[in-house]
Amino acid sequence: MNSESKPEKKLFVLDTNVLMHDPAAIFRFQEHDIFIPMVVLEELDSAKKGLTEVARNARQVSRFLDELIHNVDQNQIDAGIILSRLDYTSQIDRQCSGRLFFQIRRMISLLPETLPGDLPDNSVLGTVLALRQEHPDVQVILVSKDINLRIKAALLGVRAEDYHSDQVLDDINLLYTGASALPADFWERHGKTMESWQEQDRTFYKVKGPLVEDWYPNEFLYTPGDAKFEAIVRSCDGNAADIELARDYRRAQHEVWGIQARNMEQNFALNVLLDPDIDFVTLLGTAGTGKTLLALAAGLVMTLDQKLYREIIMTRETVPVGEDIGFLPGTEEEKMAPWMGALLDNLELLGGNADSGSWERAATSNLMLNRVKIRSLNFMRGRTFLNRYIILDEAQNLTAKQMKTLITRAGPGSKIVCIGNIAQIDTPYLSGLTSGLTYVVDRFKSWPHSAHITLRRGERSRLADYASTEL
Fold this sequence. Notes:
The protein is α/β, with parallel strands linked by helices. It has 16 helices and 18 strands. It folds into 3 domains: 10-161, Rossmann fold (3-Layer(aba) Sandwich); 173-245, Elongation Factor Tu (Ef-tu), domain 3; 273-470, P-loop containing nucleotide triphosphate hydrolases (Rossmann fold), CATH 3.40.50. Strand 1 (10-14), helix 1 (16-21) and strand 2 (33-36) form a beta-alpha-beta unit.
């Protein structure tokens, strides 16, 4: 490796967990060089067995590395393998122009002999320290998702960073909420040039002005205060947009399968859930905001009453909150039943009309259960769902890759509703910034056939609402 590299060029030493988290990580450092210690290759080899996501990623990393060293001689390995030599690297990162270096010799360890801890971690730290001494003109940085390793590196004066390329946003507070409050002078600035018309009992407005440039399709607009105005952006074109007056599902005459919206965000959620032109809906919110109930109620109306869909399919990632209880007996639906307590609770609420008798409630419950199917995510690959209303619960526990696998299962006439709470992620190595739910909210916000809303107010009970804010 050339020690006369430019000072601004960096050498990133990758830890094993980075590669197992994102197999394409070696192509995401633009013009900078990559170094892979030998102990990382050993750990990848140990992790490649099995059918887990981590094992699949470890195997994919090995394939990438095998392609990179194919038909490469020893001189090229010593000088660094050009990462852009693979044809598809431009699809991953168009600025990928760095080189890949492997540890091919034993490096002099500069670690304190009495340093306790894990041997692979210590080996990686020793490699970083040796690289710094051999190449003082190059900025050597350790990249690891292991917080403890980064702490240990900091104690030894080694610069260490988390892997950020998989983060959708720099700050979770920047995530698109799906709703915007109109300024107090909105009508004064835009009312004079506004046009209005009606189509099929729906009221539309054409708005022009600089404010329109920040709007997204199917975004919820409202005016704060007593003079309530609630509308949905239907189309945007530069500084002009068509908005539609939202239907008020808080009124008894507009109730959905026996329920009514209890707040502004729930009202907007029902507007987009019941819209057949919107194929993809994401609902975020804390516990008790009504995400599952709203999605189910809208699905039952569109499946049983309007006949737009053949059935409702509900699925979720099976990540336990506490200790795993082991294997579950029975068929696919019977195995998934313990994970679908939220579904059964909400179906009981939707089918439990107090004015009807026990026989009528039982008949309604059987009718709903016959049209609601429970499926496992493990068997989704290769399937195509035609005219189905698909609810993905606890979507915050999925990676971006798993999200893509599920959403691409939708065939003609299907609708997908993703619901979750990014504050309750149970999957290791995922955070609010790297969750697949955050990923799809950000990527779909500009698509005219998708909608998103963040539910903020808990409606389960006053106890649950207080607990979610104070505990």
